[in-house]
Specification:
By secondary structure, the protein is an alpha+beta fold. It is about 20% helix and about 15% strand. The protein has two helices and three strands; from the N terminus they run αββαβ. Strand 1 (about 20-25) and strand 2 (about 30-35) form a beta hairpin. The longest helix is centred in the first third of the chain and has 8 residues, at about 5-10.
């Protein structure tokens, strides 16, 4: 994501860290992601191949992005 996205979020009082975002393909597919760094060119988001596959979009496609507060987990079980 571009650095301007981080600057805009930092100006809001109700932002919680770590930052999480909801990505949508324009239809019913969605996923939630975190940001590794805010260094993409303005107007662009660079996504890993795994996220592109999850949304079933092609490189260069448009996706919608919005900041999302996910509920904190209360339980996790690992194998």
């Amino acid at each position: 994501m571009p650095s301007s996205a981080l600057e805009e979020l930092q100006g809001q009082a109700d932002v919680e860290y770590p930052l999480t975002f909801e990505l949508r393909d324009g239809g019913w597919k969605r996923t939630f992601v975190g940001v590794l760094e805010f260094s993409a060119p303005e107007g662009m988001v660079i996504l890993p191949t795994k996220v592109i596959s999850c949304l079933d979009v092609v490189a260069g496609a448009s996706v919608s992005i919005r900041y999302s507060k996910l509920p904190k987990a209360t339980y996790a079980q690992f194998q």
